[in-house]
Amino acid sequence: MQRGRPVRSGRQRVKLRLPARKCGNEEAGSGGQHVHFVIHAVDRPDALATRAKFYRVHRIHLDEANRHGVAVTTAGTLVAPDGETPVGSLFILEAESRAAIDAFTASDPYHVNSVWQHVDVHYYNKKR
Q: Please, what are the domains in the chain?
């Protein structure tokens, strides 16, 4: 037995190597690293009918996010205190760059058809 080193019987300690990820406000390079983003979009006060009209194509847009180099972790409708009336959208997305997120968001039917009054994009440091 070497001094200062514990003896391990039958079990080896293995160090896992996780794929590199950048987070915070650093852009990922072209090395396949992904960054998480939160999209917080607030509807115009009079957008309910327009939202309903473009709901299906908006859903198709989300389903085809991979065409933009974007993966949708979660997406949902923000609702008023009544628990039913839509007032916006929230997405957690993953992509290699902010540019991919911006292109994806700008081409969303809700954005194109002015459902959203205001859209915030935040870098997101996913912990678990």
A: 35-124 (3.30.70.1060)
